[in-house]
From TrEMBL:
<keyword id="KW-0560">Oxidoreductase</keyword>
<dbReference type="InterPro" id="IPR007814">
    <property type="entry name" value="PaaA_PaaC"/>
</dbReference>
<protein>
    <submittedName>
        <fullName>1,2-phenylacetyl-CoA epoxidase subunit PaaC</fullName>
        <ecNumber>1.14.13.149</ecNumber>
    </submittedName>
</protein>
<dbReference type="InterPro" id="IPR052703">
    <property type="entry name" value="Aromatic_CoA_ox/epox"/>
</dbReference>
<dbReference type="InterPro" id="IPR012347">
    <property type="entry name" value="Ferritin-like"/>
</dbReference>
<dbReference type="GO" id="GO:0097266">
    <property type="term" value="F:phenylacetyl-CoA 1,2-epoxidase activity"/>
</dbReference>
<dbReference type="Pfam" id="PF05138">
    <property type="entry name" value="PaaA_PaaC"/>
</dbReference>
<dbReference type="InterPro" id="IPR011882">
    <property type="entry name" value="PaaC"/>
</dbReference>
<dbReference type="InterPro" id="IPR009078">
    <property type="entry name" value="Ferritin-like_SF"/>
</dbReference>
Amino acid sequence: MVTVERVELSAELAGGEGRAATADVAEYALWLGDDALILSQQLGAWIARAPELEEDVALANIALDLLGHARSFLRYAGTYDDRTEDDLAYWREEAEFRCAWLFQQPNGDFAQTIARQLAASVYLFELYTALQGSSDETLAAIAAKAVKEVEYHRDHAVQWTLRLARGTDESRRRMVRAVGDVWPYVGELFRDEPLIDRLEDAAVRPSTLQPPFDAVIAAVFAEAELEVPSGPMSSAGGRHGSHFPTLGYLLAEMQVLARQHPGATW
């Protein structure tokens, strides 16, 4: 179970060597930090609304883990231009965020959240596993901490996928629909952007993550008797500041307190 102390420890990993990020490393850290931050905010909305009390706790714990990852990446990104993690979370405009569209998909019903969480956690597990080998020591350290937590997130999503897909007729219908709704946004995760070429071995090439991702998803879907959607992928554009319509509403809710009471402490 996650604790506030674990969130703090995760955040402290960033910048531990005292070195500032370069412009390209900072941009890459924003990719990773924004993905985790937005997914954390999404999952937090389930607290007191999940289908059972245990899931209130589980989703809250996953959200806190992701918040810790986001704080670490954003703190490191901010070393490039002397911005804090709070500056980056609360004072950027929508077009300045770099999260992929998958993480911006609405919660919908519980099945849709689980379908999104399955794709996200399988992807993040493969990403952080590979990022441990980064030539950037700070990125590697954050990934080494995060991958242990994301392994639980992945297992949680897999178990719920199986439970819903092999449950009642209604739960299966909703899971099938949810997978169809979410999957068009998966392809963006594996696109090789020019930034990756510039970073070389400091970053993980997204396209290399697709084969292990596909293998895990194929195994889970086979057990759940689900089909991997084969329709077209969304053009998306989150890495360049072009976002799904829901992101603006999410940011308005997330940022309102900081913007109404700048500099407030308690």
